[in-house]
Specification:
globular; mainly beta; two-stranded antiparallel ribbon; 94 residues; 5-stranded antiparallel beta sheet; 0% helix; 31% strand
C-alpha cells in the first residue's frame, strides 16, 4: 500500500510491483531458437508460479494457436542464473 501525500492525503493505492519479464532460450525446446518466437495481438497468457525454477519464481506462460511450443517469460532479475543463455525482452508481433 502507498500512503498518499499532499493533495492525495487520506487516499491509498494498493498495487503489485511491476516486474519486467524476459524470454530466455533455456525455456525453449533445443530445436526452437528464441529469435523465432513471435506473438500475435490476441495471444493469451497467464501468470503462474514455478517452484522448480530458482527455488520458486513467478512466470508468465501461454501458447500461440499456430505454434507447437508454448512460451514462458521469467522475471528479468533471474535471467542468466541458469548459465549463459540468449534472452529477449521485446517479442515481434505477427
Amino acid at each position: 500500500m502507498i500512503q498518499g501525500k499532499g493533495d492525495n492525503r487520506q487516499k491509498r493505492k494498493d498495487h503489485k510491483q511491476s516486474v519486467i519479464s524476459v524470454f530466455q532460450q533455456d525455456d525453449r525446446a533445443k530445436s526452437q531458437n528464441i529469435n523465432d518466437l513471435y506473438l500475435s495481438a490476441d495471444s493469451k497468457a497467464v501468470a503462474g508460479f514455478s517452484p522448480e525454477l530458482m527455488g520458486g519464481i513467478e512466470t508468465i506462460s501461454g501458447r500461440e494457436s499456430n505454434q507447437k511450443e508454448g512460451f514462458t517469460a521469467i522475471p528479468y532479475f533471474v535471467w542468466n542464473n541458469r548459465g549463459i543463455s540468449k534472452m529477449k525482452v521485446w517479442i515481434p508481433l505477427k
